[in-house]
Amino acid sequence: MPLTLWLSLAAICAMGAMSPGPSLALVLRHTLGGGRLFGVIAAIFHTLGVGFYALLTVWGLGALIAGFPMLFQLITWCGAAYLAWLGFQALRAGKAGALHPAAMATSRGQAAKEGVLVALGNPKLILFFVALLSQFVSPDMSALAKAIIVLTAMVIDGGWYVLVAVVLSHSRILPWLQKNAHWINRITGVLLIVLALRVVAGPLV
Hints:
Elements lengths: L2 H16 L3 H13 L1 H32 L1 H25 L14 H13 L3 H10 L9 H26 L4 H7 L1 H21 L4
Helix pairs in contact: 1-7, 1-9, 2-3, 2-5, 2-7, 3-4, 3-5, 3-6, 3-7, 4-6, 4-9
C-alpha cells in the first residue's frame, strides 16, 4: 500500500475513532470511576472488538465488490448515510452527550468486559467500517494489505482511547473539555459529514 494511501486511511480511521458516542462514554466512565488503568483496559478491549468487525468487513468487501457490485454500492451508501447521521447528531448535541458521563465504581474485569461488549454490541460498526474501508479495499487486494488496514484501524482506535484515558485522568482536563464540548461536537460533526460525502464520491484505490 502506497504511503499516501495509508496516510489517507489513517486520517479517516482517526476521524472515526474520535467521533463522540458510546465508546467514548465507556472509556470516560471507567477512567472517572476507577482511574487511568481502568480506562486503558476498557480502551484496549474495545479495540479487540473493533478489530473483529474490521476483519469481517475487509474479508467481506472484496467478495462483495467482485460478485455483487450493485449490492456493494447500496451498502456503501447506507454506510455513508450512517456517517452523515452521526455528523448531524454531533452538530445537534451541543454541550450534552458523551462528555458528561456519570462516574461509577468499576473493576478491571468489568472494564474489559464492557470494552468488548460495547464494540461487539454495536452492529452499526459494520456500516461504519464499510463506509470507511470501501475507499481502500479492492477485489485483488493481498492478504498483507488487508492486514495493514485492520491493524491500522485497531492501532488508531486503541491509541486514541488510551490517550483519552491518560489525559482525562488529570482532573483539570475534563472541565475544559466539558466547557468546550459544543465546539468539539460541531467540528466532529462537520468532519463526519464531509467524510460521508467523500464516501459517496467513490473509492481512493
